[in-house]
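Treating backbone geometry as a discrete language has practical consequences that deserve illustration. No coordinates are needed to read the tokens, only the vocabulary itself. For completeness, the protein is quoted in full, as a sequence line and a line of structure tokens:
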Amino acid sequence: MYYCSLFIAKRYLCRYFRLFVVVQLFLKKEREESLLRFHPWVFSGAVGQVKGTPQEGDVVAVHTHTGDFVALGHYQQGSITVRVLSFEQRPVDDSFWEEALRKALMLREACGLTQHLLPFHPSPFTSCYRLVHGEGDFLPGLIIDIYADTAVMQCHSIGMFRARQNIADALLKIYGNRLVTIFDKSAGTLSCKENDGVPDSYLYRVANPAGEMVENGYRFAVDWEMGQKTGFFLDQRDNRKLVELYANGRSVLNLFCYTGGFSLYALGGGAKLVHSVDSSQKAISLVNHNVYLNHPASTINHQSYTADAMKFLRDVEPNAYDLMILDPPAFAKHKGALHNALQAYKRLNTAAFSRIAPGGIVFTFSCSQVVTKVDFRNAVFSAAAISGRRIRILHQLTQPADHPVNIYHPEGEYLKGLVVYVE
């Protein structure tokens, strides 16, 4: 009787699953190995046969060449044909999204990042974190950042874009009235063909959001509508805290400062002066606003400059600074740009090493996914050799816990950083 019931339940589940998945992809012979190791991508070269007519963003089932089910994911034309959502046969419905987001939130709770959800939270506290980090949370193509009572969503695949309202509904089930705003900022991450020219928009809004959040006790204004990425670079939270520890009594240069995160921490750590440099006047305006929010008396020892960071660095007098932060935008967004990117990292670090005061500290970063840790370290090594300075590595840095790396998808470890001591 037990086996009969189990058989009937399994047959019902398979029928239920087929209602949601019409298209089947069959892999070429022996091309399923990476999927059996839970890598979340199916490349176009691995696809042997397609049954059905998939549209961009459809949920499709992936099978071996002999017909065995392997995975379920979003279909998209291009080198990555399927981004895997599940290695189990199940419908991608409302319960799927709610379950996936609850698991993501559990990880952030385990990391102590959700105090703002409690009736009482200690101070200083953090009210901002990344809730979903694409493949790192088994949701390829989806980013969700939380800024206090606002969720900002960015879709990097048409499948996630088509599901954005379902995802927003799941967020509301989980957070309830603790969320007053859900903003979709996918227009810049999808091609016009994929999003059909649909602009960024509010998926849910019951009040005007404050546009402010707290990180480790520091207050920041966040512009998710017009700012870079989702409005703030949450991935440097832990590294900013480390700058705070090294800043006491130092003269600090923060290049590519964006809205001044490292600058605020340096001032909070007791820096005797901080100079913030960015090419964007809008970013510099936010730097000045954020400095005033946290250090209204620091206008004497903080100065911001709207300037090209590399040119500013070349014009710096030697020994003017003894702590520098080099956090440039991604120099390489695809493998074809890798060589030029490594040369740019070498030039930037050479200029910094040549000008920093003896006994100075340099925080240097790469956020380019195609630049490996070895590539970046070799670029910094070359810069050290060219500068002729004696340099030692104090810390090797990466992204924080709310930007987890799926162990089956090492490509997700995109942020690399070194803290070096320059004699």
Observations:
- Confidence is low (pLDDT under 50) at residues 1-19.
- The longest helix spans residues 2-20.
- The two ends are 78 Å apart (CA to CA).
- The chain has three domains: 2-86, 94-214, 233-422.
